[in-house]
Design a protein that fits this description.
With 190 residues, this protein is α+β, with helices and mostly antiparallel strands. The chain is built from five helices and five strands; from the N terminus they run ββββααβααα.
């Protein structure tokens, strides 16, 4: 028998079947708002579900999470496309989206790569690179983080700065910081 657990320490709803984790729904609480970020199938469970015709475990998990949010009367922000699909398939939950955020969460259509209104009747398979990138982009937008692709040059520059700082310390053991550009140089009165 499947069991749903709200694991507050990891900020996720988890679905267990016979003691094994099947899938989870990552969320973030921001005040009185519940931000649903992504739904993840455990790899071993995804292989089994891929052979079936319905996305039953994910639908059970989403239904349980939505019922919990509805009972708690918290605002819901469905950044996860699967949650948004479920909410539009079950309009009673649309009232949980705050009025100020409703324009941000329109229904998903075939152009977005999702079957709007189908609820949990989609076939689940191993995640494709494009869909994972789309989910990651939605999650990053929700968290205010730039996508991973754009982070590589930033990490590279940070590593270059750290290397340059280490070289400066080797050459000049004086702990006084060295200004990076001329604007940071102190002005002296003549």
């Amino acid at each position: 028998m499947p069991a749903i657990q709200n694991n507050r320490s990891t900020s996720r709803y988890e679905l267990y079947d016979n003691g094994a984790l099947i899938c989870f729904l990552q969320y973030r609480m921001s005040g009185e708002e519940l931000w649903f970020l992504s739904t993840v199938m455990v790899k071993s469970a995804a292989a089994e579900v891929a052979n079936s015709t319905a996305n039953v475990p994910v639908t059970v998990l989403i239904k349980g999470a939505m019922e919990d949010a509805y009972r708690s009367r918290v605002a819901v922000l469905p950044f996860c496309p699967l949650i948004r699909e479920y909410m539009f398939a079950h309009p009673v939950y649309l009232t949980l989206i705050p009025e100020t955020w409703r324009a941000r969460f329109p229904p998903l259509g075939p152009a977005a790569g999702h079957a709007a209104g189908k609820g949990g009747n989609r076939r689940v398979s191993e995640p494709q690179d494009a869909s994972m990138a789309a989910r990651r982009a939605v999650m990053h937008r929700a968290q205010g983080v730039a996508p991973r692709v754009r982070m590589e040059p930033v990490r590279k520059r940070a590593a270059q700065r750290a290397t340059a700082d280490a070289r400066r310390r080797e050459l000049d053991p004086d702990p006084t910081p060295v200004p990076d550009d001329e604007a940071d140089l102190p002005t002296t009165a003549a």
